[in-house]
Design goal:
CATH class of the domain at 468-720: Alpha Beta
Largest sheet: 6 strands, antiparallel
CATH architecture of the domain at 468-720: 4-Layer Sandwich
Strand content: 5-15%
Distance between the termini: 70 Å
Oligomer: single chain
Number of helices: 24
Helix content: 55-70%
Number of strands: 13
Shape: globular
Structural class: alpha+beta
CATH topology of the domain at 468-720: Phosphatase 2c, domain 1
Radius of gyration: 35 Å
CATH superfamily of the domain at 468-720: PPM-type phosphatase domain
Length: about 725
């Protein structure tokens, strides 16, 4: 049986000790220059810096032993002179050298030293790097929950530092963990986001890693030709960089694809090339994986003996460095190979090893126990002894009366029945106890999984909140505004979003390049398909496409922006008839007043309409504006959205909202709140301070809902002109 494994998930090591080049010749030239520097009469501080730079360049070339030697020399010197500011980076470099040599316990020891040093100095960038590198070791040891915990710590700190490069790196690493936990859809979302960020920044080394991971995710869906396009692109970039690690990993992945395509000869050729690159790095983990894949190729070619040989080498090497996942894969291969040879003894031995390794990886304890052979044996012996005693007594009392013999036989029969019945009761009790243990364990597993899922969703809420309209931007652009936002679940399908954009001249260039003009301000209130986690994913896509339309494609008219977003949604998620998208109101504020003092607003509305509260004569009136009865997405109609323009005078109010408030069930009869009642509420509270209006909406909503469940996400925004 072929076990399709990837060559290696590429995780980004945050060295944070010194800057290095990406070209092998430049590394070699720099190493020669640094060696000459060591021959000079330099201060111990400078010598320690030169030694750790040598270690970093050697590490980038895959020369782990040399990197470790220079790193330890630098560490000893820095500790001697108490150079604490450099020690964090030195410990980090030494740890990465040990990891490159597959010595994970030593790697963990020095990463922990680096973390303690950086925590003492409050070096946030270094702390984040240590969290990331500790997570990588947990990943290599197949402890995925703890790896995810440390990657998320690293991401949180990098988001505080606003370092886009390392944010992209952490997101890519988290995607790898989700892939190993078989959450392919979430892994693909994070991996694509990481790749897009690296591509935008021009980080080619990281693009190689992301392309490999995207190819592996596509391969899991059995789209082999498509995954090959990712791998070939990754290989092309890695070759231009002369990057050994990238070329090795990519070749290994291509070899796995050929195995799955039942092309063992082509696979073996590619895997041998990858093995040559690995020999320069002496990476035992990768060596174990490559040997396992080569064994699979021999299996496909019908050479079972060679397959067993290579699987055994893979297993021994993985066991020597303590990596469980690769041991399990090799053990499964040995099980299948021995079974093919009808060597069932060895087959069963390796099957048992594979099962134990699988339990260790996923932290599941075997709850079944063996039958109580000793108890069974004692019961059997007791029955035999009683029968023998009964026979002896019968011989001695042959002359006794028939009645006495009958009583003896009845007593023996009853005793036997009791013993048999007791045995079956014991067996039933044992099985019931085992089942109860299984149920209790499964309950604990379910509760733990629920907690992990809830924690992940809460973290997703924080990510979503960062993408909503920035409070400072809203306050600066619309001083008289309020937001009432109440998701049904932890994360929301409803969202509000805002941005500023320079005006465009007729030929598409920035108007500001011709004359200084106040930029346009855009405000959107949208209801994505669904709520909770599915709705939140849709909201992320919708926000991304709105950003793309305005800030990348330089589209300025609201109706054209919605047309663009609709096309992107249909092209990406509506290929099989799905009608996912959003209802939306998108306003464009022109801050420059007209001659009569009015403010010009252009807008487009999809399955929703804004309302205006304005003073006419002695009383206030509510005006319901027009909109298009079709969604931003695939629907019955696909007409272009209409651009509409309104002019508002001072003290007019405009309200934007989704359908969640009006659709909420409640009140005395458990009916919907409805739009007419909502509009009357706007009319009654207009003129109140913005915070008081928001509180009025909140208290009215809770009073109407009462003890009933909230049925949908709720979002209402009011703006006073």
């Amino acid at each position: 049986m072929l076990v399709p494994l990837q060559i290696k998930k590429v995780l980004l090591l945050l060295l944070l000790s010194c800057c290095v080049f990406t070209n092998a010749q430049k590394h070699a030239a720099k190493i020669d220059s640094l060696k000459r520097k060591l021959q000079e009469n330099i201060h111990d501080t400078t010598r320690a810096k030169v030694l750790i730079s040598l270690s970093s360049h050697a590490l980038a070339q895959g020369e782990h032993k040399a990197a470790l030697d220079w790193g330890l020399q630098s560490m000893n010197l820095a500790e001697k002179i108490q150079f604490k500011r450099l020690l964090g980076g030195i410990y980090n470099g030494v740890a990465n050298s040990y990891v490159g040599l597959s010595n994970y316990p030593k790697g963990m020891e020095f990463h922990q030293k680096a973390l303690r040093n950086r925590l003492e100095r409050n070096d946030k960038s270094g702390i984040s790097g240590s969290y990331n590198n500790i997570a990588i070791i947990y990943y290599n040891l197949s402890d995925f929950p703890r790896a995810l915990e440390y990657f998320q710590k690293s991401l949180k700190m990098q988001e505080e530092l606003k370092n886009d490069y390392y944010i992209a790196a952490c997101i890519g690493n988290i995607a790898v963990i989700y892939d190993n936990l078989n959450d392919d859809s979430l892994s693909m979302v994070y991996q694509q986001k990481s790749f897009d960020m690296h591509e935008k920044m021009g980080n080619k080394t990281d693009m190689v890693a992301s392309l490999n991971n995207l190819g592996e995710l596509t391969r899991k869906k059995n789209e082999l030709e498509k995954s090959l396009t990712f791998f070939n692109r990754a290989l092309e970039i890695a070759k231009t960089l002369d990057e050994i690690e990238g070329m090795k990993n990519t070749l290994g992945n291509i070899g796995v694809n050929y195995l799955m395509m039942k092309k063992p000869k082509e696979a073996m050729e590619i895997l041998l090339e990858a093995k040559k690159y690995n020999e320069t790095q002496n990476d035992k983990k990768d060596e174990s994986i490559l040997l396992s894949h080569m064994a699979e190729a021999y299996t496909l070619m019908g050479n079972t003996n060679e397959a067993i040989h290579f699987f055994q080498e893979s297993y021994n090497m993985a066991k020597s460095i303590g990596i469980l996942k690769e041991q399990k894969s090799a053990a499964e291969g040995l099980y299948n190979s021995y079974k093919e040879k009808n060597d069932f003894k060895n087959a069963m031995a390796y099957l048992e090893i594979a099962k134990k390794l699988n339990d260790s990886i996923f932290n599941s304890n075997t709850t079944e126990s063996l039958n109580s052979l000793k108890t069974q044996f004692a019961l059997d012996r007791q029955e035999v002894q009683l029968n023998q005693k009964a026979e002896e007594e019968t011989k001695k009392q042959e002359e006794e009366k028939a009645k006495q013999r009958t009583i003896i036989y009845i007593a023996i029969g009853v005793l036997v029945l009791v013993l048999v019945f007791s045995y079956f009761l014991y067996q039933r009790f044992r099985i019931t106890r085992q089942q109860n243990k299984i149920i209790e364990h499964q309950k604990l597993v379910v509760e733990e999984k629920n907690k992990e899922i809830t924690d992940s969703i809460r973290y997703a809420k924080r990510i979503q909140q960062t993408l909503l309209a920035n409070t400072e931007l809203m306050t600066a652009s619309l001083p008289g505004h309020f937001v009432f936002f109440k998701p049904k679940d932890i994360v929301s399908g409803d969202f509000y979003w805002a941005t500023k954009a320079a005006r465009r001249s007729d030929n598409g260039e920035d108007a500001q390049s011709f004359v200084s003009i106040t930029p346009l301000f855009y405000l959107a209130v949208c209801d994505s398909t669904g709520h909770g986690v599915p709705g939140a994913f849709m909201s992320l896509l919708n926000i991304s496409f709105l950003n793309e339309a305005i800030n990348e494609k330089n589209i300025r008219k609201p109706n054209e922006i919605l047309n663009y977003v609709r096309k992107r949604l249909i092209d990406n998620i509506s290929q099989e008839g799905a009608q996912d998208g959003m209802d939306a109101i998108l306003l464009c504020f022109d801050p420059e007043e007209n001659e009569d003092g009015k403010i010009k607003i252009s807008y487009a509305a999809a399955n929703n309409t804004p309302v205006i509260v304005t003073q006419r004569g002695d009383k206030k009136e509510i005006v319901i504006l027009e909109g298009d009865k079709m969604p931003v997405g695939k629907g019955i109609r696909s007409d272009p959205f209409t651009l509409r323009t309104i002019e508002l005078k001072k003290n007019d109010s405009i309200y934007l909202y989704t359908d969640g408030y009006a659709d909420q069930f409640g009140g005395p009869k458990g009916k919907k709140f409805k739009y007419r009642q909502l509009h009357n509420l706007f009319l009654s509270m207009d003129g109140l301070p913005e915070e008081q209006q928001r509180n009025t909406l909140a208290t009215t909503f809770e009073a109407w809902k009462g003890k009933l469940e909230q049925v949908d996400d709720v979002c209402v925004i009011g703006v006073k002109i």
